[in-house]
Amino acid sequence: MASPGTFARLEESLAAAVRGQGADPGAGLLERPKDAGRGDYATGAALRLAKTLKQNPRAIAEELAETLAAHEDVEAAEVAGPGFVNLRLTPAARCAVVDAALAAGDSFGTQEASGRKVLLEFVSSNPTGPLHVGHGRAAALGDSLARILRAAGDQVATEYYLNDRGLQTDVLAASLWLRAVPGLQGEEKPLPAGAYQGDYMKEVAAAWRRRHPGGTLPEPPWLEFAWPDDREAGARLAEIARRELGEDFEALRKYAVEALGAMIETELRGFNVAFDRWFSERELATSGAIEAAIKKLEEGGHVYEKDGAKWFRSAAFGDDKDRVLVRANGELTYFAADVAYHADKAGRGADLLLALFGADHHGYVPRLRAAFEALGHDPAKLEFDIIQFVALVNAGDRIKMSTRAGSFALLADLIAAIGPDAARLHYVLARGDVHMDFDVGRAASRSNDNPVHYIQYAHARGCSLLAKWGGRVEELPAADPAHLGDERAAKVLAELNWYEPTLRQAARQREPHRVAHWLIALAGALHGYYDHVPVLGGDEAGLPARLALVAATRQALACGLALLGAGAPTKM
RNA sequence: GCGCCCGUAGCUCAAUGGAUAGAGCGGCGGCCUUCUAAGCCGUUGAUACAGGUUCGAAUCCUGUCGGGCGCGCCA
């Protein structure tokens, strides 16, 4: 594994040539020309360098072309237009990727270990309800990114921050109570404002009753529950539940939080997403880490008291305003816990702390960065990538998503309707930082709207060819370029050679969608090859080369699908 | 009002400051007596608007218009 492909070697020698001219090559030196007729690769480096070097771009291009033309993989390097250099690979260099893919197998494209440790947090949805389709986007992007970073050589640990304490879990406990009181089965008592209304609470309550067949809970004081649906509604309900339930309150909360956490974990597993660690906010709190973090901020002189509360001077570190750590009533804020969480992350030796935040949390980034820096950590290690919302559409109608009201489009429903692979592919088709319209009805009804079938079908077709041939791929001789010189083969080879750059770019820019779009292009190239070149029925001499090309493409499709957490069926 | 993200084909999305802005779906027209027609081939059709930066702008800057999200001693 991990020996750099043709593209990487060429880019490095180009970078060396640029450095030789006394300039910084930067990233993305080599590109692929839109028009394949210009060659395999191209670079506009000379145009970029012209200004800093104060030279004629064409003169620079001539020098670069000369250097590149001397490269063993390059057949020709020509200067074109204002200063582009177009490269044409030797047939052998173009085909080398076929043997490389077959030799590498499932680790095709895997890059050398970078030595970098990455901690990647994503989803981290509150354990108060099932995941909806918005969480699905974060799950698909985050898990794919983890796989991509690993393939690109990083050591990645994924993590889910579980908010298993605080007011919302009090409300959750209260909601369980209201659904679990004996004798209420069958009755549809309207729940008070603030309670979690979703049907899933009935299931959790039913499970709780099965677990505690003889358990008695006090009858809720239903008449007390007439209050407006405002900010305080949840707190009022929690207070009553705590009062009425006494010791049972804690047990109910523990049960509810664990049930919801397990439910979420199960849903994610069904989506092919598994976390390395579930980080409990509750454990963080009981360990005293939050107080310790606050104390450290205080020792640094970053905390002051005002109106009975403790404030962190986040504005001194670029935030819009200062933030409360400890409220006047003595309670810690959510923010305080998050500061401690990030301090904990910082102590675990990762080189990069990556977190995917929903767009509704983007305002949180400056204060977290501020606290991180104030605690003496290097803010350059922090990276927050924002995942924009998914607007769920069904045949043109927008579907509202609200956990508390219990009306939302569930991720589980989506997966049940179109399958995990189709859902994952659909999610990662778009960049994370753009808004996305997800038309469920359409994705469910016309499966061709999702490219997963196009890609998987290409894989299955390749498998079918190899099965029909019946031989062993490992025994194929090295692919002979002489038999892969046609236009259709060239398209496939071009995409195969583009896998490694795509993977690296996706990792570097945290853009899983690049892999999805590359897969579509590779699948298209194979479909075209399949429909125009008789693989098994063509001339005998070229058979091994054609089979090797198909086998390599099948392998590359499987690798790319795996990066996105999707399967590669051998039959469809 | 202020801040962040965004505006590309009828729809959903691509495009590292580069060369003629690409796919899929939809529409229209072709291709199964040969390896899976969940496919292939052709065609239709777009950078919200106005300035600016430069050899070159969908991409960077300013403004306008439109959309999403946020702006609490909630979580």
UniProtKB/TrEMBL annotation:
Keywords: Aminoacyl-tRNA synthetase, ATP-binding, Cytoplasm, Ligase, Nucleotide-binding, Protein biosynthesis. InterPro entries: aa-tRNA-synth_I_CS, Arg-tRNA-ligase, Arg-tRNA-synth_N, Arg-tRNA-synth_N_sf, ArgRS_core, DALR_anticod-bd, Rossmann-like_a/b/a_fold, tRNAsynth_Ia_anticodon-bd. Residues 455-572 form the DALR anticodon binding domain. Its EC number is 6.1.1.19. One of its GO terms (cellular component) is cytoplasm. It catalyses: tRNA(Arg) + L-arginine + ATP = L-arginyl-tRNA(Arg) + AMP + diphosphate. GO terms for molecular function: arginine-tRNA ligase activity; ATP binding. It comes from the Bacteria. GO terms for biological process: arginyl-tRNA aminoacylation. The keyword Ubl conjugation does not apply. Residues 8-89 form the Arginyl tRNA synthetase N-terminal domain. It is found in: Cytoplasm. Belongs to the class-I aminoacyl-tRNA synthetase family. Monomer. This is Arginine--tRNA ligase. It comes from Candidatus Amphirhobacter heronislandensis. The lineage of its organism: Bacteria, Pseudomonadati, Pseudomonadota, Gammaproteobacteria, Candidatus Tethybacterales. The gene is argS.
